[in-house]
Specification:
The complex is a heterodimer. By secondary structure, chain A is of the alpha/beta class. Chain A contains six helices and 14 strands. Helix content of chain A is 25%, strand content 31%. In chain A, helix 1 packs across helix 6. The mean pLDDT of chain A is 96. The mean pLDDT of chain B is 93. In chain B, strand 6 and strand 7 form a beta hairpin. The longest helix of chain B has 11 residues. In chain B, strands 1-3-4-5-6-9-10-11 form an eight-stranded parallel barrel, surrounded by eight helices. Classes of the chains: A alpha/beta, B alpha/beta. At the A-B interface, helix 1, strand 8, strand 10 and helix 6 of A face helix 3 of B.
Chain lengths: 208, 251
């Protein structure tokens, strides 16, 4: 099996690479590339993302044909894709970080700044928070409800269709922290930095 | 609910741990990777390396340490010490650091913070503030605490938030190494001044000091070095103690 981590200059992805390689061992081949043919021929794709919504969308668009290839992989061929952090946020139609920017539009909704209730809550939301699992998502196999995951973000994805929400976390309100829509999976938290439970989520995705 | 973080810090010099856990079963007590792994297996919420390598020719050793650690530890890794430029930050991130802590360069050239937070995102930019009390204010020290800049630490913390820092690591130079507890006044003043998370550092001698840092200092995270070395307390013990005192921690 081939799993491709999309390398599109979206910031620091070394931790994502290390964690997938740790879980994959020899049984799965992990590619790190933006090569369109390699993405096309892979079985699964991981879309990481750090920095702002706009900078990640711009970086995707800067690689000619990449968005089309990802659309084909995910929407037409319906192969499994996992978005992490801003990788998940880009599923939305639109994001409001820096300036209004169109996302991939895979899951209808928007990405807005977390309402920190007049500075009652510090932003970014950094650290370990519990996840409240709402949906029996395949990537949560053997993950206990209220497990801790590592978060770093100031913006949240608000999907229109609430049935895509796989888990939420409590930080000033119930923030969407995992989504699943058919073959599309996403986590707002960083499984690659969430110790053994995070690695289990990666393992679940690889074994889908 | 977001949990308070406990961050053990290891001083690394020429690629070796200077002070560390003195366990008999360690194969190589000087290997930062092995020590970091013990901490992360014990429940450390993050790991911090402070590179105190003095000579420039040995600066490269930290990159190898970060690279090897990030392949073994799957909790966030912060690296600081001697970080001067956007290029230094880039190199550390590429080796597998999740966050980089910047001290002297942030004071001398705040542009580094503006530029690097734009380029890599605020989430990986930690500004380390070393402060010492002078009459009724706290002044910023640089170069590992040797140079007094006279800059007001509280004002500076706000300026760093505005420049794009994602977190502040606040160390009291008066308390560092004394084991008498954090400078609560300093950290609580900074924590209430800014709206980004603050990590308290400098002076921890027992587990109650960690409790005070969070309860009285109102910080998001507590960093400590020596209490976790030489097996005085494990990270697990620290977390159980905080839990007992009603502080939300990840157990």
């Amino acid at each position: 099996m081939n799993v491709t981590i999309v390398d599109y200059n979206s910031g620091n992805i070394s931790s994502v690479i290390n964690s997938f390689k740790e879980v994959a061992k020899e049984k799965v081949n992990i590619e790190v590339t933006s090569d369109l043919n390699k993405i096309k021929s892979s079985d699964k794709v991981v879309l990481p993302g750090q920095g702002s919504f706009k900078s990640c969308v711009d970086a995707l668009n800067n690689i000619s044909g990449l968005v089309d290839e990802l659309n084909e992989f995910t929407i037409i061929n319906k192969k499994p894709l996992l978005g992490i952090c801003v990788g998940l946020q880009m599923f939305a139609d639109i994001g409001y970080e820096e300036t209004e920017t169109n996302g991939l539009g895979w899951i209808s909704g928007k990405v807005s700044k977390i309402n920190n209730q007049n500075n009652k809550y510090k932003l970014p939301h950094i650290g370990w928070n519990e996840i409240n699992i709402l949906k029996d998502s395949k990537v949560f196999k053997d993950i206990e409800n209220n497990s801790h995951m590592y978060f770093v973000h100031s913006y949240e994805f608000i999907p229109n269709d609430k049935s895509v929400i796989a888990a939420t976390t409590d930080y000033s309100s119930n923030i969407v922290c995992a989504v699943e829509k058919e073959n599309i999976f996403g986590t707002q938290f960083h499984p690659e930095k969430s110790d053994k439970t995070g690695l289990k989520i990666i393992d679940n995705f690889i074994n889908l | 609910m977001l949990k308070n973080r406990i961050i053990p810090c290891l001083d690394v010099k020429n690629g070796r741990v200077v002070k560390g856990i003195n366990f008999v079963d360690l194969k190589d007590a000087g290997d930062p990777v092995e020590q970091a792994k013990i901490y992360s297996d014990g429940g450390a919420d993050e790991i911090c390396f402070l590179d105190i390598t003095a000579s420039n020719e040995n600066r490269e050793t930290i990159y190898d340490v970060v690279d090897r650690t990030s392949k073994k530890c799957f909790v966030p890794l912060t690296v600081g010490g001697g970080v001067r430029s956007v290029d230094d930050i880039n190199k550390l991130l590429n080796c597998g650091a999740d966050k980089v802590s910047i001290n002297t360069a942030a004071v001398q050239n705040p542009e580094v913070i503006i530029e690097s937070s734009k380029k890599f995102g605020s989430q990986c930019i930690v500004v380390a503030i070393d402060a010492k009390k002078n009459q009724d204010k706290w002044e910023i020290f640089t170069h590992g605490g040797r140079n007094n800049t006279g800059i007001d630490a509280i004002e500076f913390s706000k300026k760093m938030e505005d420049s794009g820092a994602g977190e502040l690591l606040v160390t009291s130079m008066d308390r560092d190494g004394t084991q008498v507890g954090y400078d609560i006044e300093l950290i609580s003043k900074i924590s209430s001044k800014v709206n980004i998370p603050v990590i308290a550092s400098g002076g921890v001698g027992n587990l109650d000091h960690l409790v005070d840092g969070i309860k009285l200092g109102k910080v998001s995270a507590v960093l400590a070095a020596s209490i976790f070395h030489y097996g005085k307390h494990s990270v697990k013990e620290a977390k159980e103690y905080l839990d007992l005192k009603g502080i939300p921690v990840r157990i």
